[in-house]
């Protein structure tokens, strides 16, 4: 399809405006985080280095990354088999499962935290007071988004026929889910995982009110004493999410090239 | 190439199977026996229970009552993954993330066969269906017919005791359907696996099966070799469902019925007294006769054969199937005399 010169100019200007809208604040953050404070000119990486040298900030970064990892693993382990099972064996329960999974979206985070704070006093009593116990709450938090991503991927394949074909060839249910269904919904799982990582790395309300030190909580605290360092940490977490998004895009593309209908 | 004949064809027995969905009975006391190495086709209209029967045999559905046994072993409560059956589905069912050869080898992997043995057997099966050169392709790179041939190779690779075919040709175009139909029969004879073939296409069923079972409302109406099923239907439903039939006024006296002025033998199950005889178009001959009571209505050319529709004085239409060389001598409006061959007919009330 050929476009007129006017349309091409309009498109280019539009793209530039959108790019500016997204990138100018990021550049400003980068500028702010690398400025030498005071009247002296020049640039410094001290605020970025703080993420490695400051023990509290570093441990909060590690905690957030581990939380993201465990949330993704637990979410996939819970959601994928449940959704496959419901779709294949108890399709009548699909509406109920969808309702339950979407429920956290309709309840404000603050209300959920107040509701589960008593539960968490038991969780920390039984499992210790590591920030990683937030995994359970975060799995609930990411359910609505992850459910949608995986449900769309499952709808794109004939899960019933594929699983019946595998079972008729001698595969048990575990093999059906892990070797047949999951490789064909990789795009959906990666999408769900990415959303989960993005949510966990940015989640503040749960961690703050339940008194756990995660990256957003540490950043908020740091912002009060060292704004540029907090800005560097915020920009770094955004870059990490962006890298994950790019990786997801390439992984999905590779799978399409292989012929997987994910 | 290795000998592909499995020698594992086992007898299949479905005994008094019932499958109820609430008030609806998809199967209503189905009993069916299949001999070792035999290909039985289940034929019937949509919703008659043929696919339900096959799925229960495969272990993909559970009977409300009744038993399933293969080779004398009761499999009623055995899960699908342990039944040692191969199945080809109506929908394309190749695993999209695997190559053709990995698809065919999947069942062998589930049985713990080592890599070399898997690839060897999978290669042999792809040879059998003529797709060895497509071994490294993915499903989306194959046509529908090729996908179903791979699915057939995959089902047979595990040397199943029973091969189940659930309308495997219905998604294909007419020409490919006929080719693959013949190929399925060739392969089935070559490997000797007991096979249950479900279809709603009677030409398909009559062409490939050793015996055809006609189902209606969850029950088996008749199970017989194709020629017997066609020429000696056991019930009104079979007579009307399989092939074309004229319904001609008849008067049954003893073992014979008077049809179009001729006495013909009647089949068991016929009514007595006045009724309607189910007469095949090829059993009707049309004789040009200026004083004949019937009139030619239409002549339909079908290649070597033609179908001639004639109207009797009482308005009844009679369809005759004749060699085209004879039929094309007739014109609509010609007066003709109709004669019925002295073949047994079923007379219904």
Describe this structure in words.
Chain A has two domains: about 1-45; about 55-260, MetI-like fold, CATH 1.10.3720. Helix content of chain A is about 80%, strand content about 0%. Chain A has helices spanning about 5-35, 45-55, 55-90, 95-105, 110-125, 135-155, 160-170, 175-185, 185-200, 205-210, 215-225, 225-260. Chain A is globular. By secondary structure, chain B is an alpha+beta fold. In chain B, α2 packs across α3 (about 115-130) and α4 (about 145-155) packs parallel to α5. A six-stranded mixed β-sheet of chain B has the order 6-7-8-3-9-10, sandwiched between helices. Chain B has a five-stranded antiparallel β-sheet with strand order 13-12-11-14-20. Chain B is built from nine helices and 20 strands. The interface of A and B includes residues 168, 170, 172, 180 and 259 of A.
Structure in a nutshell:
The complex is a heterodimer of chains A (262) and B (349). Chain A is an all-alpha fold and 262 residues long.
Low-confidence parts of chain A: none
Number of domains of chain A: 2
Identify the strand order in the major beta sheet of chain B. Answer: 6-7-8-3-9-10
Helix-strand category of chain B: alpha+beta
Could you name the CATH topology of the largest domain in chain A?
MetI-like fold
At the first level of CATH, the class of the largest domain in chain A is Mainly Alpha
Order of helices and strands of chain B, N to C?
Answer: EEEHEEEHHHEHEHEEHHEEEEEEEEHEE
Reported for the largest beta sheet of chain A, the result is: none
Tally of helical runs of chain A: 12
Number of domains of chain B: 2
Low-confidence runs of at least 5 consecutive residues of chain B: 1-6
Cα-atom Rg of chain A, whole angstroms?
Answer: 22 Å
State the CATH architecture of the largest domain in chain B. Answer: 3-Layer(aba) Sandwich
Largest interface: A-B, 23 and 33 residues
Strand content of chain B: 25-35%
Note the beta-strand portion of chain A.
under 5%
Helix content of chain B: 25-40%
Q: Give the overall average pLDDT of chain B.
A: 90
The count of DSSP E runs of length 2 or more, i.e. the number of strands of chain B, is 20
